[in-house]
Amino acid sequence: MFLLIFGLSFFLRAYGAFSNYPFWVDEFSTANQAKYILKYGINVFNNPDIYFETHNITTHSLVALFFKIFGQHEWVARLPFVIVGSFVPLLVFYLAEKMFNKTTAVSASLLTTFSYFMIVWSRQARGYVLLQLLVLLTIFFYLKLLENRGSIVIATSIIISSLLGILTHSMFYILFIALVADFIFYHREILQVWLKSPWSYLLIVSLLVIIYKIGFLSNLIGTYYLGVLKANNLWYYHSFLWREYGLITFLSIVGIILGMIKKKYLVTPIVFYIVFQLIFISFLFHPYVLRYLLPIFPFLFIFAGYAITHISNLILQRYQLNKYKFLSETIPILIVLFIIINGYKFVNKPKRFYSVNHDFREIALIDYHQVYNIIKQKGDLKKGETAVIDTWWDRLYWYLGQDYKPAYAFRWQSDPGLINGLPRFTPLIINSAGEKIIPQSNNVQLISNLSDFKKAMNSYSKGFIFIDDSSLPHDVIAFVEKNLKKEIYLDHYPLDDNPYSIWPATLYSWGIN
Prior knowledge:
The protein folds into 2 domains: about 1-340, no CATH class; about 370-510, no CATH class. It is α/β, with parallel strands linked by helices. The chain has 21 helices and 10 strands. The longest helix has 26 residues, at about 75-100.
């Protein structure tokens, strides 16, 4: 069973993944962070010239390791998450079997294996699927620990998975809150015993030190991330869960209700986690993107599988067919296969490309290879005589190298508006030459108005500016559109299967023949 589930999952996720499809915005960031690790080693943590994301250490370290082994390519950055994502259906199987039964486990693992949403996020150079795996592992160990309270091996396992979760993504702390809530409601006697041990306090202090060191508290309190009851993203996630995944959501709600009736102590910690995650991303966390739902999706499939299994058995019992064991085991699986074959958000056959915009248009996706091929071919890059201006310097560094000096970022300096819940604000310092420098960006210069742009043009007789956001400073955009040469215009990635995924982007140049 292990080889069957993992093999099928890996095939669906790895098929076509070795093509170097262009990164999207956050993937450029992952690749750049991994290159910093390879370049600076342990000093990456205290280098004042670069920004290193200490709350995504495992993700970037994994990519750095694969870069070291296989070279720096897009497919290499995605490969570790293809592998990690292939283990998720397997872990869903074991968790569902532990909570309910083998038929539910097979049903849930099939839904997880063939889910488009699960596959597409196993193909991205981002750590969300790793967070998903560590959440599943931690809950699995947690349930095992409730059964074997004195097991040092299980206790050690949950500590290790938790530490890895902390180092993978800040949202892992929501799971801690959920497990603490479960303890308070149902396992207070265990908590009282543990708090009498000095080791418990040592663990708590160690955890607080780690939280402080990776900088999560500042992010949590910071106005850029936490809305403090000012965010309202419920409409967005409701549209996704109910309109796009209504069948799975409905079945999972039924499964949760049945599970609370039948196996409350096993189901409750997961229900707490689902509820707290939804509350956090809906009302406390300003940005709204579907990938923040990813950690709870395996549990939705588990509860949906349990609902299908339980209801099937009730129908068989009604007609006195439950005495035929093979029917109670095969009918739920056949129903799940029918859902999958019907194509309702599931993959019937492997695809070479899975779009992150398959459900909602929310991530800019165009062929950046075309853009930078023009820059490389027409610019005097080796001489350092061509200014390159991009809206995302991680993208510029990926294509031109982290040591490329005439590098500029076209961003807002300070704007009261928000984009997808995030403020239009760019920190800066003024150097001795009067240039605007973005701190910890390897000396990328900021262009935030027309005066900045004209200074860049005066400094370099040749240059390119790539504009992919119409909300950027309008005086610069208007000048560029009127006076510069248009090199290429793109607005849609050819393999993107969402016809509404339009992202206008134009490369302009000056002084280029």
